[in-house]
Amino acid sequence: MTEPGGRRRRSTSTTTRERDVRDARDAARRAADTLSELIRHHLEGVSAVCRSEDGGWIVNVDVLEVARIPDTTSLLATYEVELDPAGDLVQYRRIARYRRGAQDQ
């Protein structure tokens, strides 16, 4: 369509443009929100965000799986969440499980 003044209006709707992941922060937020809806564990944070080969995102999300006392013996897990370029979930999987007090090896 042509608007007054001879300009053409873009055919892409603003809702479609707003759905696309803007940056790593947006990818991390979407991955964490989506994962928390699926696994119902308390999120501890995001430990990694990177672009996938297809232009999507791979995000590592750390979650509290089993709360224990003392807190240093609680069990945490890292989940790898893959999003497509639009920010929709492609897949997720648990890649590690560890005690909070354990040091990286």
**Low-pLDDT stretches:** 7-17
Q: What does the largest sheet look like?
A: 4 strands, antiparallel
Give the strand order of the largest sheet, numbering strands 1, 2, ... along the chain.
1-2-3-4
Q: Quote the average pLDDT.
A: 86
**What would you report as the Rg, rounded to the nearest angstrom?**
19 Å
The run of helices and strands is HHEEEE
Q: How much strand? A: 35-45%
Helix residue percentage: 10-25%
Tell me the quaternary state. single chain
Structural class given helices, strands, pairing? alpha+beta
Taking the alpha carbons of the first and last residues, their distance comes to 60 Å
The tally of beta strands, per DSSP, is 4
* Total number of helices: 2
Shape: elongated
Provide a descriptive summary of the structure in words.
- With 105 residues, the protein is an alpha+beta fold.
- It contains two helices and four strands; from the N terminus they run ααββββ.
- The chain has helices at residues 14-19, 24-39; strands at residues 42-51, 57-66, 75-83, 89-99.
- The chain has a four-stranded antiparallel beta sheet with strand order 1-2-3-4, with helices on one face.
Main features:
single chain; 105 residues; alpha+beta; four-stranded antiparallel sheet; 38% strand
Q: Layout of SSEs?
A:
Elements: H1 14-19, H2 24-39, E1 42-51, E2 57-66, E3 75-83, E4 89-99
The gist of it:
With 105 residues, the chain is α+β, with helices and mostly antiparallel strands. The protein has helices at 14-19, 24-39; strands at 42-51, 57-66, 75-83, 89-99.
